[in-house]
Amino acid sequence: MAGVSVRDATLDDVALLRAWDEEAHVIAADPNDDWQWEEELQRQPDWREMWIAEVDGRPVGFLQIIDPAREDSHYWGDCEPDLRAIDIWIGPADALGKGYGTRMMRLAIDHCFATPEVRAILIDPLARNARARRFYERLGFAFVEERTFGEDRCAVYQLDRRTWEGR
Predict the structure, then answer these.
(1) Of 91, 98, 115, 129, which is most buried by a Cβ count within 10 Å?
(2) Boundaries of each N-acetyltransferase domain copy (predicted)?
C-alpha cells in the first residue's frame, strides 16, 4: 500500500484546491464554507498549518491544523490553551476508500501530539455525516456535543493525548 506524505500548501495549489471544492463529496462534507484560498495561502500565522497530502507525488487531500485558542476568526469560540483542531478531506473522488484519510489523520495526530503541551485534538464533522463520525470514532475520538458553526450543525469530537498514546 502506498505511503502518504504531506507538504505545505502553497499558492501553486489554488487551482487544485478550487477543483476539489467542486467535488460532490467535498461539498457534502463542507457545504457552506469558502476557504478563500488565494488569501489564506498567502498568510502564514504561527497558529496554523495547511498541508497537501500526496501519494507517490499525486495530491490526494488537504489537512489544516490550528490552535483554536489563538486562531483569529474565533471559529471554535473561547477555547482552553493546549488544544489543536484538524480539518481534513480527500480531494479527488477516485482517492476515496483507499485508507489515505486514515494515514493522513495519523500523521496529523502524531504531529499535534509531538508538541508536549498539546493535550487534546478537536474535530467537527457535520452531525449528519455518519460515515465521517464512525471514521473519527475508530481513531479514538470521543463525541463531546452537537454544536452549530455558522450554518452547519456539527458533531464536536475530541481525542485526548492519553487515549492516543494508549491505543
Answers:
(1) 91
(2) 4-163
